[in-house]
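SAMPLE LOG
Freezer: B-3
Tube label: C17
Construct: single chain, 386 aa
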Amino acid sequence: MQFGPTEVNRHSLIQRQNTSAVGSNRPLFNLIPKLKRAIYGNIDSSSPRFPTSVHDLHSLRPKSPAAIMACRDCLSGTIHTETPTGSEKTIHGFPTYVAEPEAGTTPKGLVVIICDAFGWKISNCRLLADIYAKKGGFLVYVPDFMNGKSPTIICCIPHGEHFLTLNPIGNDMDPGSMGAMERIAKPGSWLTTLVYKPIWILRAIFTTIDFLIKNRVSVCHPRVISFFSSLRTSAPPFQTPNLKIGVAGFCWGGKHAFLLAADKPSSRIQRHSSQHPSSSGIIEPLIDCAFTAHPSFLKVPTDIEAVKIPVSVAVGNVDMAMSARQIVTMKEILEVKNKGDHEVNVMPGAKHGFAIRVDPKDEFQLKCADKAESQAIEWFTRWFAS
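STRUCTURE (predicted):
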């Protein structure tokens, strides 16, 4: 069920929302109690009921970036074990996974995937890039915008009553390691609860803080701008007089997708001489369209109101990274206030991370992931043809 503009008191909601932001700057020490609440279940992320009144929405408080990374769904999921079919290259100075369409097919355009917090090395992003390339007919890049600093998923996770030590992403790693948060949340013996779980929680905290410091927006977004600028000022990677570029951002990457879609004048650039000969000397946007699934770290409504480039959003109504009223506000701004070039697809019951870290054995979440996949491919196909 998608919700429309009549289901809540919009005026009251927006007044409340103007003072809130997912990206509010709260002290990092607030992470500890929030992490404990997320792990031990005081934050209910599984309720199928979607708030339909301002009274319901008022109880849902926006989270700080630290709290977002602390939520169970942000630090959990399943690493997919299929083998990606693309290749690794260095493109404009960035290590990049490259997925290409079927041999003999001229790409419709270029899609750049900005991964979630677990980075470009895990198979999930790469397999999705393969799907976009083959099903959509796109050339797909997955660059390392974290400069090799994606987090260790969980340094130690429970394995019976013992520790199972993992290596950081990029080295050999247990494919089931993303299930650490679920294992922490499960009831255990007194020994596990009183001794092991506090250690696991502290390790998760240190991983989160390290990630937030090393991969904050002020550090990583200049890399994003640099990469897209280089794409625009260089000869296109395939023969075309009008290279179309789209961005797909997931979780952590969703913030960067929204920032690119804001099309700030300072980010505009004069394209390569082979592009748009009739518009020589004109500065133009870095991207043509954007797709994002379960974005995190958004400032609502600021980041949403700034959007100028066509944006498509897939998000669940039980997403722990965005409150219900923030989703309502986003939908209203993009589909009502700025009707025409944007869409927000709200999927009842879809959890944060469903589009990129879905458990293949969870049929419902898998269906949601398939819908998001089709939504992205259709969106890029539409705007690449325009």
